[in-house]
Amino acid sequence: MEFAELIKTPRADNVILHRPFYPAVEGTLCLTGHHLILSSRRQDNAEELWLLHSNIDSIEKRFVGSLGTIIIKCKDLRIIQLDIPGMEECLNIASSIEALSTLDSVTLMYPFFYRPMFEVVEDGWHSFLPEREFELLSSVTNEWRLSYVNKEFSVCPSYPPAVTVPKSIDDEALRRVATFRHGGRFPVLSYYHKKNGMVMMRSSQPLTGTNGRRCKEDSALINATLRAGKRGYIIDTRSLNVAQQARAKGGGFEQEVQYPQWRRIHKSVERYNILQESLIKLVEACNDQSHNMDRWLSKLEASNWLTHVKEILTAACLAGQCIDREGASVLVHGTEGTDSTLQITSLAQIILDPRCRTIRGFEALVEREWLQAGHPFRLRCAQSAYSNSKQKWESPVFFLFLDCVWQILRQFPCSFEFNEHFLIMLFEHAYASQFGTFLGNNESERCKLKLSQKTMSLWSWVNQPEELRKFKNPLFEANSLVIWPSVAPQSLQLWEGVFLRWNRSSKFLDEAYEEMNNIIEYNKELQAKVNALRRQLAELETDDGMQENS
Amino acid sequence: MDHITTPKVENVKLLDRYTNRKPANGTLYLTATHLIYVDASAEVRKETWILHHHIASVEKLPLTTSGCPLLIRCKNFRVAHLVIGHERDCHEVYTSLLKLSQPVKPEELYAFSYNPKMPKDSREIGWKLIDLKVDYQRMGIPNDFWEITDANKDYEVCNTYPPEVVVPKAANKATVLGSAKFRSRGRIPVLSYLYKENNAAICRCSQPLSGFSARCLEDEQMLQAIRQANPGSPFMYVVDTRPKLNAMANRAAGKGYENEDNYDNIHFKFIGIENIHVMRSSLQKLLEVCETKSPSMSDFLTGLENSGWLRHIKAVMDAGVFLAKAVKEEKASVLVHCSDGWDRTAQVCSLASLLLDPFYRTFKGLMVLIEKEWIVMGHKFSHRCGHLDGDLKEVSPVFTQFTECVWQLMQQFPCAFEFNERFLLEIHDHVYSCQFGNFLGSCYREREALKIFEKTHSLWPFLLQKKQEFRNPLYKGFTVYKELKPNTLPFSFQFWCGMYNRFDKGMHPKQCVLDHLLNCMSQKMKLEDNATDLENKLPFLDNPLPNEVCSLSKIVNASVESSKTPMLNTPQDYESEPPALLTNGAIVEEVDIMPDQDQKNKENFANHHDLLDLNSTMEVIESDAKKEKPQHQ
């Protein structure tokens, strides 16, 4: 298919762009296969708008006489308005945008066409290979092995080819366990806590069904992670009720008789479209320009977004506590093990592992616990807060994870190498990007799409020193401790950097950030100067001493 | 003190509201001024000091197996939950505290016994630190239109105004006296702030005694004089900060509001800030929400909404913004009043000044502002703060709301204030502490009668001494921001955890950016001295610094390390349903002086009640798991 077929009116003159906090701009609107571009006739290019079609969540059109107006609502929550003279032009442009922003085929997406303007120093597609992660693990323990049982994606279509499993469990056993777990997602290693050798594993629900089907390899697998005489915890992200109901559909949970060494804790975390509806309501509340305080607070409350944040954080803290404080291993799963499970395992790692609070470590975490772990990004991030489709699979699971990270960052502002902008950047790219990283639903799909050959990795771009500079937290001081966030409602806040980003000017907050940066930078320079002077002085003194001696 | 029958009680437990961890065990002391609790169970001596004047209420709760509980709520929003072993001791402490916390006579207030051991003249100089005349001079007063008059020198115009007030030059004695008769309690229109750049003024007064039809020529002349003192504008605003309904109800009592027809060129406007009683009950509801044990997010937000607290804060802020805008953008003078003109009017006028004039965003400036609009103009601190045993219906968090508005502005404009949040909290503490004379009494005349200038100390010099810890490292100086135009959409107002949950440390960020930056500032001074010293020692320094500067970053990091903010951090009870049971709220503030290395020990304080209190939502596989309790219990 040619994009040209979809673009009936490739350009329109005298279009007026309205954006929050900017004066209206008049210019020429151009549609390309992947972008909507507005360029003003001004000499400077500052007034230009480049918008990826894939960033468009929904559009509305309105007409007053022959003047058409298109309101574009983006996945990054921004809303812009274009006034287009001429009814036909406006209709054409609207229908083109609609078609281009909802392309069916992944291979028509921008990452397949994007040619980077920067030199790739480090190819991000190879930055976080499972083999390298395994090497790190091997330096502290030899109880685990890297299994290629899923090499052809035949055992578990949503797992990567290489997974880390207990050494004592062979591939044959893994195959059997896979048949006992939803979607073949047998328990694999998620995190190894160096401090005490405890581990966190994740999987999907066991397929016990109503008649209590069992699988001895399954219990053998998870028991292999326990120390003699020690007990482990299973954190089920569903309520007991939901877990019991799942049995009727062939799913289920670990019964005590079959898993006597495990204690199961049900920590219910919401999923699917409930989260999407929550996002839609929250964004609607944030966009409300009413001056009514009660209305705002009641909408904020009714959106339940912060309730979800609190519940996810609480579950993650609980997992962390089992590992670090109780000295126990943990298995986390819900139904499919691709959503709430990953929120919990990844947040627990941020709490427990200082490495995950570095930029590199966080990237590795996203790669390991989200991309390779098979979080279906394409389905979940197909639409954002302005979605009309309300499909069950659309869900801001990853977005909520980032919000939770932001909450921890706010409570421990000196413990993270990255700043808020880094998290916002990841949010944006998860929904619309020139890079291939978040395309597809799992490794198998990414492999088939040959993303690593045909598209650029987000990490290749982010990890350039000049890009990284924007994402570095000036307050960062490596902190090797476990960080326990407070989950009291008073401690959790609306993530303004994302939700109010387009609704209020951030000028004064940006200035404060800048000022803070300056203070810290200046101190560093000063310290360096003092050190240099000291050294000079010392050198002079030794020179003097030598001269006296000679 | 005759009130203290039992000065010392042993084996007293201090419970933490947020956890089920083992309570601290220690000794309670009652002194003439403070309740002191010394925690004997901690490795490091921990003391909790509570000023008697800070105690808002003492409540005896039903006897429990561990003893007799006593709940102490403080005006600075601390809540102390003590358990005393013997009923008799508890009762004695209870009755002592009741008396100690509710002094009957002003002479019993702390300020009259507080003795910081300083020479007499520095005490006197202290009282002269804030000179309002200097502030009027700063506004260019006296000038062609405004004068400072001693018309009230024997309080004959108004007994709640100071002897000297600023009025339009055009208003003669007859006008002043006439207007006074027409204004509630004689609180005539006087100048609050003059915006020098365009001569627009903010003036304040009380409601007119207009009833349904009364008018007063002198009052009309007074307003005309104010309007004409700003020749650039053809009209002036008269702002009634009350809800219209309240103002109308006042007419029946012979009070009310200005009839636009009777005054030349006034634009009359209601703003709708609620009265002191609504505010008092709103705060009450807010504090109930803050005190709720492990609320869900929904409980909290619903409670916050139902309290109406942020709605009221927004109303005050909106009024301030309206005034500032009228003055700055419409170049119009504004006359503000409520009923008596000492609560809402004080809030709104001081807030508008703060928005318009960067001076009021400095240490000295905020002091001047509080002195000018609150203390001198007769905000009844004594009644509103309940300094003495008296009518509880007079108590209202009017000044707290002003403090919060300043804080809300600091959130939106982090670089615009010379001081930080702690400065606000310190002032707020002392408004209630009665340790200094500034806030005693309810007007200038009373303070004179109490001889506070002779017998007590002024707070302001003490605050300036602690300037280093109260400064805002991000402050960009006087000239960078002129007037502030805050966003007043509801989402711009945040719940102020640092005020209303101030003593629940576990809820606050575990690393404090402010401390970090303050450290940077003090380090900066040391480094600059170091650098100068070294440069002087070096015989010659022709060439600029070598490039090795960058390569030295490791050393830099090492030295920065030492400035690390101590982190207070233990997990809370994440498991119980509803979940948030704060173990980390547990640790009293004294703990955070402990360095990081003590993290391990510190964690031992916290009781990991954790995974063992199971409840219905969770299925236990092993019931004997308790035996497995890890050793760190």
UniProtKB/TrEMBL annotation, chain A:
Gene that specifies this protein: MTMR9
A GO cellular component entry from the record: endoplasmic reticulum
Location of the protein in the cell: Cell projection, Ruffle membrane; Cytoplasm, Perinuclear region; Endoplasmic reticulum
Alphabetical list of CDD domains matching this protein: PH-GRAM_MTMR9, PTP-MTMR9
Protein name according to UniProt: Myotubularin-related protein 9
Residue intervals of the Myotubularin phosphatase domain: 124-499
Gene Ontology MF terms in the entry: enzyme regulator activity; protein phosphatase binding
Gene Ontology terms describing biological process: negative regulation of autophagy; phosphatidylinositol dephosphorylation; protein stabilization; regulation of phosphatidylinositol dephosphorylation
TrEMBL record, chain B:
Active site, per annotation: C338
UniProt KW keywords: Hydrolase, Lipid metabolism
Domain Myotubularin phosphatase as annotated: residue spans: 126-500
Listed GO MF terms: phosphatidylinositol-3,5-bisphosphate phosphatase activity; phosphatidylinositol-3-phosphate phosphatase activity
Binding, substrate: N275, I276, C338, S339, D340, G341, W342, D343, R344
Domain of life: Eukaryota
Family annotation (Gene3D superfamilies): Pleckstrin-homology domain (PH domain)/Phosphotyrosine-binding domain (PTB) (2.30.29.30)
InterPro entries assigned to the protein according to its UniProt record, in alphabetical order: MTMR8_PTP (IPR030591), Myotubularin (IPR030564), Myotubularin-like_Pase_dom (IPR010569), PH-GRAM_MTMR6-9 (IPR048994), PH-like_dom_sf (IPR011993), Prot-tyrosine_phosphatase-like (IPR029021), Tyr_Pase_AS (IPR016130), Tyr_Pase_cat (IPR003595)
Keyword Hydrolase: yes
Matches recorded under PANTHER family: MYOTUBULARIN-RELATED, MYOTUBULARIN-RELATED PROTEIN 8
Family from the record: Belongs to the protein-tyrosine phosphatase family. Non-receptor class myotubularin subfamily.
Entry protein name: Myotubularin related protein 8
Organism: Gopherus evgoodei
